[in-house]
């Protein structure tokens, strides 16, 4: 049985001790050098490039021959039927799939020009700059403050006022500050589902990632909480490269600028969202978005 | 959910076909009433327009319901948007048939002025365009829709010739000026019907090919 999302995240974060000595090939805080699309020139978000990338669970390919470029400072949605490989691809970007035994990859998956599957990759640094938010809100059983401060503390931030500033900034960025600023010592688990998910987003933002991966972030939330997360995604996209996997096609249409349609582990079509949902280039995409198969 | 949507779309198609058949009949009868100088037929077109108006409202309400409840995308979205636009064009064509019928009622009670042959030819051309544009919609035939767009110029040319002919006839027979002006108006109504038919064909092209071809008349010259 695979590990739960929370376990995977904790394992990924706490792998620091054994990985710290590995040379960091992806420098933190670097400005995006690849400019393309709708972003400001000094935008700090990263570009993701997949070159004939395949991911195998044992002998079975989760995704096969994916070649696509995720544009910086915009939202890219990945849609497709269950088992099409969209989550596999998403989780490959920060190598959280490494925690699953008997897996291997082919091709290259580049974050800001660096192949994340390169043997020199510092996983701690990679996961610091590529944050992830899962389907089910998974705050740690700690206070709101400690949840947000968890990542920065792991990365060596000890100064209390600096941590306070990071927590405030992250909660503000996640549109949660006004709701919890007087209760930072309260357990994150006491919050509503939508608030918990925003705690998770704030926790991901606390390490100043350039890329935010979202694996069906609203599927466990009610429409009001979903609306808040979607508004948040809209606000964050000017500063972050966001990749969102969603089963909700209306959500993909609402929040993303580009949409990739995956089917049976392959990338079928990747284009502007407006085109995918108005006039897709492939019949298979049209059949899927119109609900004729899937 | 997709099955529900498909059922709604099928039902909408049937309603649109019923509307288009009624409008086609109105245009045909309006022309016939001028040709045969049949005021009763013309009067029935005027009275039956209320049916077209009712059908148009029903089709529009169905489109809005589908948009609100199913949020269609891709071909389904393009189909609904196309139906909304074609629906308006069909209703306007129905109104123009009424306008022709009103001219027909006037002309039927006056001495004949000739020229009805030219008008009938023009009407046949407009009716043929209407039929083809609706066939293109039903059969998803973009080529046929392109042909309809290209043939709009033929009706425009006929209308211009009718203007010159009427102008000469007024100079020759000034006592027939009222009848001749009504005849010219009928010609103008037919030309407008052809324009709306071209709009329908352009919308069909959008539905099939996903590209907007309006305001590109030069492509068909």
**Low-pLDDT ranges of chain A:** 12-42
Distance between the termini of chain A: 26 Å
Number of strands of chain B: 0
The helix count of chain A comes to: 12
Shape of chain A: globular
Tell me the fraction of residues in β-strands of chain B, as a range: under 5%
Write out the strand line-up for the largest beta sheet of chain A, numbering strands in chain order.
Answer: 6-7-8-3-9-10
Give the C-alpha Rg of chain A: 18 Å
Work out the strand percent of chain A.
15-25%
The general outline of chain B is: elongated
The count of helical stretches of chain B stands at 6
What is the helix/strand order of chain B?
HHHHHH
Radius of gyration of chain B: 19 Å
Report how far apart the termini of chain B are: 45 Å
Structure characterization notes:
The relative contact order of chain A is 0.17. Mean pLDDT of chain A is 85; it is low at 12-42. In chain A, β9 (258-263) and β10 (266-272) form a beta hairpin. Chain A has helices spanning 5-14, 16-19, 86-93, 123-129, 144-154, 160-173, 177-180, 193-205, 223-236, 249-255, 273-278, 283-289, and strands spanning 48-57, 60-70, 75-79, 103-111, 114-115, 130-133, 211-215, 241-245, 258-263, 266-272. In chain A, α5 crosses α6, α6 crosses α8 and α8 (193-205) runs parallel beside α9 (223-236). Chain A has 294 residues and is α/β, with parallel strands linked by helices. Chain B is 86% helix and 0% strand. In chain B, α1 packs parallel to α3, α1 packs antiparallel against α4 and α5 runs antiparallel to α6. The termini of chain B are far apart.
């Amino acid at each position: 049985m695979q590990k739960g999302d929370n376990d995977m995240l904790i394992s990924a974060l706490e792998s620091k001790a054994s990985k710290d000595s590995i040379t960091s090939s992806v420098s933190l805080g670097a400005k995006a050098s690849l400019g393309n699309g709708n972003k400001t020139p000094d935008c700090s978000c990263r570009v993701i490039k997949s070159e004939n990338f395949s991911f195998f669970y044992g002998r079975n390919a989760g995704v096969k021959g994916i070649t696509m470029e995720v544009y910086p400072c915009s939202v890219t949605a990945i849609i497709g039927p269950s088992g099409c490989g969209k989550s596999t691809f998403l989780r490959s970007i920060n190598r959280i799939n490494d925690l699953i035994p008997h897996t291997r990859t082919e091709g290259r998956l580049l974050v800001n020009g660096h192949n994340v599957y390169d043997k020199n990759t510092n996983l701690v640094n990679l996961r610091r700059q590529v944050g992830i938010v899962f389907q089910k809100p998974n705050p740690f059983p700690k206070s709101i403050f400690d949840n947000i401060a968890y990542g920065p503390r792991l990365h060596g931030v000890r100064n209390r006022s600096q941590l306070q500033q990071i927590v405030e900034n992250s909660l503000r960025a996640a549109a949660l500050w006004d709701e919890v600023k007087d209760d930072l010592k309260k357990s994150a688990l006491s919050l509503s589902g939508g608030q918990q998910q925003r705690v998770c987003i704030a926790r991901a933002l606390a390490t100043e990632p350039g890329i935010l991966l979202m694996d069906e972030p609203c599927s466990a939330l009610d429409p009001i909480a979903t609306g808040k997360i979607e508004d948040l995604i809209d606000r964050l996209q000017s500063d972050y490269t966001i990749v969102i996997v969603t089963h909700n096609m209306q959500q993909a249409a609402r929040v993303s600028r580009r949409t990739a349609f995956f089917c049976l582990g392959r990338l079928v079509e990747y284009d502007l969202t407006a085109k995918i949902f108005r006039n897709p280039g492939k019949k298979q995409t049209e059949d899927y978005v119109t609900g004729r198969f899937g | 959910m997709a099955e529900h949507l498909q059922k709604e779309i099928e039902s909408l198609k049937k309603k649109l076909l019923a509307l288009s058949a009624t409008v086609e009949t109105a245009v045909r009868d309006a022309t016939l009433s001028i040709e045969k100088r049949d005021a009763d037929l013309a009067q029935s077109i005027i009275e039956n327009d209320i049916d077209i108006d009712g059908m148009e409202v029903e089709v529009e309400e169905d489109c809005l319901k589908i948009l609100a409840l199913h949020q269609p995308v891709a071909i389904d979205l393009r189909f609904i948007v196309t139906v909304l636009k074609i629906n308006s064009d069909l209703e306007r064509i129905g109104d123009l048939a009424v306008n022709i019928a009103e001219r027909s009622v006037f002309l039927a009670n006056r001495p004949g002025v000739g020229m009805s042959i030219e008008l009938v030819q023009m009407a046949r051309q407009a009716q043929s365009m209407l039929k083809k544009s609706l066939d293109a919609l039903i059969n998803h035939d973009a080529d046929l829709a392109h042909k309809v767009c290209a043939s709009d110029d033929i009706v425009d040319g006929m209308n211009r010739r009718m203007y010159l002919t009427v102008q000469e006839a007024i100079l020759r027979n000034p006592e027939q000026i009222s009848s001749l002006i009504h005849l010219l108006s009928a010609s103008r109504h037919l030309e407008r019907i052809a324009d709306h038919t071209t709009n329908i064909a352009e919308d069909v092209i959008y539905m099939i090919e996903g590209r907007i071809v309006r305001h590109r008349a030069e492509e068909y010259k």
